[in-house]
TrEMBL record:
SUPFAM superfamilies: P-loop containing nucleoside triphosphate hydrolases. GO terms for molecular function: ATP binding. This is ATP-binding cassette domain-containing protein. InterPro entries: AAA+_ATPase (IPR003593), ABC_transporter-like_ATP-bd (IPR003439), ABC_transpr_LolD-like (IPR015854), P-loop_NTPase (IPR027417). It comes from Streptomyces gossypii. Coiled coil: none annotated.
Amino acid sequence: MAAPPDDDVLWARGLHYTYDGSPALQGVTLGVREREIVSIAGSRGSGKTTLLGCLSGRLLPAGGEVWFDGVPVHTLGLGARERLRRDRFGWIGSEPELVPGLTAWENAALPLLLRGAGHRAARTAAHEWLDRLDIGDCADRRPAHLLQSQRQRVAISRALAHSPAVLFADEPTAPLHQADRLQALRTLTAAARSHGITVVLTSHDPTAASAVVGGPADRFDDSPAATLVDRTITLIDGRRTPPVATAPDPEGSAACSLSA
Ligand SMILES: Nc1ncnc2c1ncn2[C@@H]1O[C@H](COP(=O)(O)OP(=O)(O)OP(=O)(O)O)[C@@H](O)[C@H]1O
């Protein structure tokens, strides 16, 4: 078992995963550098959620390796993987899964409290994150009294409040209206950058999938919103698409051919 490259905080090689014999991942290899924000793009059923599950230790791959910070996640037992997820990872699903009996701030504070933070510190941090996500005035409401978009913002606050090393976000803006998606994604990525949090997010939403800052990507994108993620990895049928070798030239001839 070869150790991963030093500059990747998260690294996977040859990942395979099957559901009842149907392949969902077929040999995916990727590395994510510390503080990098990577988007996993692909159409429905291409394996994005399964890949995120394997990278975050929620799912055990049928084959291949996953390493986080020098730890071989694929060899850890259930308890060790749960501790790793609780202490070092954050998770945002496409549906906000909040505890119905807790208020918004109590939900956001939950990971901090589970890790042993004091009540006052957890409450302060939770309120700060709710304010950043523009739902500070909902802090004392329970999930049933929040809109779906507000619930998702609480879920985003909860995932960031304990400053995880890696945030995994599976279609994090899916429950939001189109108009709110880019803003929520901006808030999420800006917060992650300012706190040095590595992010791996999935999306089939072109708003997220196309918002590439620059650097090596599986596909080129010149969207005006290209300010949010560092790199996009694209899956088709559980496999990575080969990287696109050339970017459009500055004179715009390639851009014409793209739009043709
Ligand atoms: N729990 C499951 N049981 C059986 N098959 C599953 C299960 N979850 C996913 N699959 C199948 O595995 C493949 C990959 O699914 P996955 O959810 O990882 O893709 P995805 O790209 O995240 O799709 P989506 O955008 O719809 O969430 C699909 O063919 C899907 O039908």
